Amino acid sequence: MSNETRETEQQGVAGFMARAKERAGERVKKGANERIVRPFEHEFSGFMGNAISEGRLFSLADAVSDYQLNDIDVTDTTCEYCAVGCRFDVLSKDGTVLGTRPNPEKAPINGISTCVKGKFSHSYVTDEDRLTQPLVKDDGEFREASWDEALNRVVDDLDGIREEYGPDALGLVASSKATNEANYVMQRFAREVIGTNNIDNCNRLCHAATVSGLSSTVGFGAASVGIEALEETDCYLITGSNTTEAHPVIATKIKQNVKDDDADLLVFDPREIQMAEYADQYSRIEPGYDNTWINGLIRHIITNDLHDEAFIDERTTGFDQVAETVEKFTPEFVEEKVGVPPEELKNAAETIATADSCVFCWTLGLAEHSHGTENIYAMANLALITGHIGTPTSGLSPFRGQNNVQGGGGDMGPIPNNFPGYQPVTDEENRKKFADAYNMDVEEMPDKEGFRITDMFLAAEQDDLKGMFIQGENPLISEPNIGHAREVLETLDFLAVQDIFLTDTAEYADVVLPATSSLESNGTYTASTRHVQLVKRAIDPIGNVKPDWKITQALAKRFGYDWEFSHASDIMEEINDLTPIYAGITHERLEDLGEEGGLQWPVWDEDHPGTPYTYADQFQTSDGLAHMHPADTVEPSETPDDDYPLVMTSGRVLYQYHTGTMTFREPGDVSYSNRSFVEIHPETAEEYGVSNGDTLDITSRHGETQAMAEITSRPSPGEIFIPMHYLDGGANNLTKEKPLDGPSRSPEYKVTDVQISVAGSDTDTPASAVPGSEEERSTAADD
Ligand SMILES: Nc1nc2c(c(=O)[nH]1)N[C@H]1C(S)=C(S)[C@@H](COP(=O)(O)OP(=O)(O)OC[C@H]3O[C@@H](n4cnc5c(=O)[nH]c(N)nc54)[C@H](O)[C@@H]3O)O[C@H]1N2
Ligand SMILES: Nc1nc2c(c(=O)[nH]1)N[C@H]1C(S)=C(S)[C@@H](COP(=O)(O)OP(=O)(O)OC[C@H]3O[C@@H](n4cnc5c(=O)[nH]c(N)nc54)[C@H](O)[C@@H]3O)O[C@H]1N2
Ligand code: SF4
Ligand SMILES: [Mo]
Fold first, then answer.
1. Residue 510: exposure state from Cβ atoms within 10 A (0-12, 13-18, ≥19)
2. Which parts of the sequence are annotated with region: Disordered (predicted)?
């Protein structure tokens, strides 16, 4: 087959499947057992045939056909990529992952579906680059070290800084990739062992505005509805969520409900993402002006008496102030600022207000702004004034990000303001409760809120933070402004990184500790829908790696603290005692659930069945009422001018995951998107003389980079999109570390003003050959 034919044949999902199959085949044949077991193959073919559309029929049977059925290990676990919370069986043999297959018996959220990452992107686990032994740096060079030496060095250096500058000169970062149990012990380590509330995680770069906005209006910083609502509601408002690429399994459920049951779908997004194709109405918006158009919807609803007065009177406070605030958000004002024509605003407002049920869905397009919390207030106000909250099919549904950011990034308390279960650290009763449990004097329990991760980076610049211990996060690429992040990492007196790979961040570390990956770990993750689900070890840990919680426990021991956890389930028992919303969630109970799968918190005791939707009777506030807050900021922190005339927004592509430590090692994923690109509208391209495939210089007020042009009408003229995944050419070369959103301290990743110019031409590159191009991605997401 010529290379050219091969290239063409391997476009789209079919190509992805072919490559994955080829790879799995090769992998399995290494040391394969020659016996072919027919019954197993049939079981598989039948299952796959029923469950998965033809284009997806990747024959796992091929991958396992060299083995006896009873030679293969089958382990049910939860996906390690995103917070949808898909569960599947992992098939493995002698420490090699052969593949995964959905197991609807144990998968309450995804049933028979997974996306390409859950299905294929696990070969990183046994990649030759995996960290297998601790590393310490001497004279600028890493060398392998024993666990003893590496742990002692971490303890000595953290202790040295603490002695000299106090505990608040240290910053700890917990990992939302790691289990609930690992995150629980990490917060305990910060508070009990180090004596600081300077602990945070990637939620700050993500949905922190959602959490702060929802906590102060409705109570829980989490989705109010579960998967049933997403399957059955009559109406969706989706904004700032590229659902088909970032939450593909949820997207499929929404598309099905729209297609089969005629649910209304309203999409507001600056880019004409694939979800727009399925929408009854797609409205293109200017990035950075979300509370403006949402206030416009609220105004139209109130002015036309379409609001739910009974609900507002009985269950909320703050309506009059909201009604007054939205007065200025007239249809004309909204059109001028955001570009939504009055008839679209009217139609959307009336569709939402008159629907029997409605789910309000959003992701980072709403949250990652300098007034992100206000955007969330506006969204919550819209749900509250229409009374679309507190029923099985109506409510608020932010789609969370990392596999365990809901649980590990919030519920477990590795955050500067709350103990596990959102119990504020500033409350003396809470401090006493945790101090008693940890056998501490209450005076020793730190009582002031600590630094958020974004503030840790700003504090380090001011020399107020001297050392960091980072678990499972790669801030060099993911924090706003790579230039700033690099400077901070370079100037720290001490940095320890605990990861599964030697990341770009780890390169700056003094000590690197190798952790088990998800497929080598036991514990739980909590999905976006508040489902707590089991994670199980599918293969033995490679090399000399250790589970995250065991590493933290070993460090605590060297500081003189004897924690006696011998399994992740012991940690969950302690969580049960101290965290009311997790009081009834035990590993045993999760194991026994069978078809029901996970438990949705709050689960107040062992007999409580879990909570599929919240706020049926009351909100989680002191008086049980929802507290509406007005949201009247209009402008983002920067607006275009002659020097920086275009607006860049940033985000993700289907095949890549964040900083790429896992997906860049998956040949199938890389063959789709192996370098950064700039989506640019044809009119803008013409204005700047840009051809497809040209290398562009892109400059912002904060940095500069180069990436390849992809001409597409996805963004509007005047806007460009750059993915966040790449160090070279990625969006964070251009973003800024401040200002931050007031209440949540999140960065404004979604709005950066830029100018562009052509640096070099490669006009022979056809659009569809541009890695990660719109054409390729939409074919794939379609399937
Ligand atoms: N394939 C893949 N999936 C992932 C991830 C990944 O890295 N790769 N990461 C996971 C994580 S941690 C997260 S948080 C989620 C993120 O999931 P998403 O938030 O859906 O992902 P983004 O690509 O950041 O897209 C945000 C959307 O916001 C739009 N947008 C940009 N600016 C604005 C604005 O000002 N207003 C509004 N309303 N919209 C705007 C963009 O056009 C885009 O459609 O994805 C999760 N899933
Ligand atoms: N411009 C721009 N920037 C953004 C965003 C954006 O939309 N635009 N989105 C932001 C968002 S929403 C997020 S969530 C962040 C994500 O930013 P990060 O969290 O920094 O990104 P990841 O690449 O997911 O990093 C996770 C790290 O954990 C490691 N890891 C995986 N499994 C384990 C494990 O079990 N244990 C340990 N110890 N380590 C593990 C991985 O190798 C990887 O290095 O990026 C943010 N940055
Ligand atoms: S949708 Fe998310 S949880 Fe489900 S398989 Fe894909 S990455 Fe995994
Ligand atoms: Mo995220």
1. buried
2. 757-783
Whether residue 73 lies inside any domain: the answer is yes
Q: How many degrees, rounded to 5, is the angle at CA 34 between CA 30 and CA 39?
A: 120
457-475 per-position pLDDT tens digit: 999 999 999 999 999 999 9
Average pLDDT, the chain: 90
Lowest mean pLDDT among 50-59, 75-84, 571-580, 651-660: 50-59
In 10 A of CB 692, how many CB atoms? 23
Phi-psi map region of 774: left, alpha, beta (phi>0 left; psi -120 to 50 alpha) = alpha
- Residue 303, pLDDT score: 98
* Cα(210)–Cα(203) distance, integer angstroms: 10
pLDDT at 774: 53
- Are residue 114 and residue 159 in the same domain, yes or no? no
Verify that 225 and 331 share a domain, yes or no: yes
Q: How far is the CA of 296 from the centre of ligand 3 (A)?
A: 34
Provide the residues around ligand 4 (an ion) whose CB is within 5 A.
206, 401
d(CA 299, CA 342): 12
Q: Which residues pair with 267 in a beta bridge?
A: 238, 282
Q: What's residue 771's pLDDT? A: 45
Whether residues 594 and 451 share a domain: the answer is yes
Could you tell me where the beta strands, DSSP code E, fall in 28-182? 73-78, 87-93, 96-102, 135-138, 141-144, 170-173
The rounded Å distance from CA 406 to ligand 2 centre is 14
Q: Which ligand is nearest to the CA of 110?
A: 3
Domain end: 73, 100, 126, which one? 126
- Number of compact structural domains in the chain: 4
Strand 523-526 with 531-535, pairing:
antiparallel
Peptide bond into 602 cis (omega under 30): yes
For residue 61 the two structure tokens come to: 């049977």
Res. 56: pLDDT tops 80: no
d(CA 431, CA 173): 21
Output the pTM of the full model.
0.92
pLDDT at 674: 82
The verdict on 362 and 501 lying in the same domain is: no
**Closest ligand 2 atom to Cα of 518:** 35
Q: Give which of 520, 499, 496, 549 is closest to 129, Cα–Cα.
A: 499
Element of type H or E holding 756: strand 752-760
Distance CA 377, CA 380 (A): 5
Confidence check: pLDDT of 769 > 60:
no
Q: How far is the CA of 376 from the centre of ligand 4 (A)?
A: 16
- pLDDT category of residue 64 using cuts at 50, 70 and 90: low
**6 pLDDT more than 50:** no
pLDDT single digits (tens) 523-572: 999 999 999 999 999 999 999 999 999 999 999 999 999 999 999 999 99
* Domain residue limits at 525: 135-205+419-600
Does position 18 have pLDDT exceeding 90, yes or no?
Answer: no
* Domain stops at, among 83, 108, 126: 126
pLDDT (mean) for 686-704: 97
pLDDT tens string 412-429? 999 999 999 999 999 999
Q: Give percent above pLDDT 70 in the chain.
A: 88
- Nearest ligand to the CA atom of 246: 1
Residue (of 251, 152, 303) closest to 782 by Cα position = 251
pLDDT band at 118 (very low <50, low <70, confident <90, very high): very high
- Closest C-alpha residue for ligand 3 atom 5: 118
- Crossing angle, helix 372-385 and helix 208-217, to 10 degrees? 40
For ligand 3, say whether the CB of 219 is within 6 Å of any of its atoms.
no
Specify whether 494 is located in the same domain as 591: yes
Pocket of ligand 3 contains residue 218 by CB under 6 Å: no
* Alpha-carbon span 514 to 158, nearest angstrom: 18
110-115: Cβ within 8 A, 24+ apart:
110/84, 110/85, 110/86, 110/249, 112/51, 112/52, 113/86, 113/249, 113/252, 114/79, 114/86, 114/88, 114/249, 115/86, 115/248, 115/249, 115/654
